[in-house]
Amino acid sequence: MERREPNRHARPPRRDNARTEHYRTTGYRDTETTPRRDHGLLRGTIKRLVRDRYFGFVRDSQGGEYFFHKAVLQPGTEFDVLSEGDIVEFRPEASTKGPRCGYVQLATTPVEEDDGNR
Fold first, then answer.
1. Considering the entire predicted model, what is its pTM?
2. What confidence tens digit (pLDDT) does each residue in 50-91 have?
3. Nearest to 56, CA basis, from 47, 86, 72
């Protein structure tokens, strides 16, 4: 009888915790125990919206433009409610066609404008 080598590429057994158990039973992410990861977000204004094709462009404070699609809008941010000039928070990503947003939500606090008198 041949002796078989153990599979070195097999995944280790899964460890369940309260978060995975909640997701498995309800199908929803538990927002109270799951921390939000807001680091890496930039602020910008919506420069242009193409409503019939559900995409738009965001301009950051340095003048860079980022493409976004309706699919990356976070819960509570509806595409139909957005308008040009709205302030949003977004996470920039690189793509083959140029910079884009991987996460977009309306800014919760207004941008403080720097008047230069400090």
1. 0.59
2. 999 999 999 998 889 999 999 999 988 899 999 999 999 999
3. 47
